[in-house]
Write a structure and sequence with these properties.
single chain; two-stranded parallel ribbon; globular
């Protein structure tokens, strides 16, 4: 953005891998104000360690959190340990690929168990088709393998100092407490959304876009 395209300042938004792991968070870490190195965050836990101590769906009851850990995390383990084995099967069966993907849309969205409350058939089939015609399900698994076998992409003891916003959608997979997030990020805006889940840009595009505009407007 700055070296090739020549923009002096830029903003970034992301969710899931695009937020925490590789894109916006890494960009923010490398572009601290004034070019200074990011400040150490005293006592900041690694997100992976914090996730182990805190139920993934932290806003729910402990029984629901235990059920999530028991019933809904299998995809992480097979994608993180045997990605190639699974990829061969899904690359050979369009029905298997659709089942693998649509199950995630149903479980991770604010649909109440009826996936078509949040996504149309056309949207779901378009998503599956993109993976099918490009053969991209294989490469989509490898970030999980990297997280299981390589260091965390954000170094321990480093804090992102650029202004950061967080939109908390009620059916998101991970709902971190604000106090924890503020130890690792310079949180300037925290919005509790009334509806939506993990696929926020698909489920609640207008609400997400409005929140992004509201955060970035005074920073222009």
């Amino acid at each position: 953005m700055t070296d090739v395209l020549g923009y002096r300042r830029f903003a970034a938004q992301g969710g899931d891998w695009g937020a925490l792991h590789h894109v916006t968070a890494r960009s923010a870490l490398s572009r601290a104000p004034g070019g200074d190195p990011p400040e150490p965050a005293r006592g900041t836990p690694r997100p992976g360690a914090a996730r182990q101590r805190r139920p993934r769906r932290s806003a729910r009851t402990s029984s629901s959190s235990r059920r999530w850990q028991r019933e809904e995390t299998g995809y992480q383990w097979i994608q993180g340990t045997r990605p190639q084995t699974l990829a061969f099967g899904l690359s050979d069966s369009p029905v298997g690929l659709a089942a693998w993907i649509v199950e995630k849309f149903r479980t991770w969205s604010d649909c109440g168990g009826d996936v078509e409350r949040s996504f149309s058939k056309d949207t779901l089939l378009t998503n599956v088709t993109v993976y099918w015609v490009t053969g991209a399900i294989n490469s989509s698994f490898w970030p999980y393998y990297a997280r299981f076998h390589r260091p965390w992409p954000l170094p321990d003891g480093q804090r992102i100092t650029v202004p950061t916003a967080y939109a908390a959608f009620p059916r998101e997979i991970l709902l971190p407490p604000r106090a924890w997030a503020e130890r690792a990020y310079n949180i300037q805006r925290w919005t509790t959304m009334p509806a939506g889940g993990h696929f926020a840009a698909l489920e609640q595009p207008e609400a997400l876009a409005a929140d992004i505009r509201a955060f970035f407007r005074p920073l222009r």
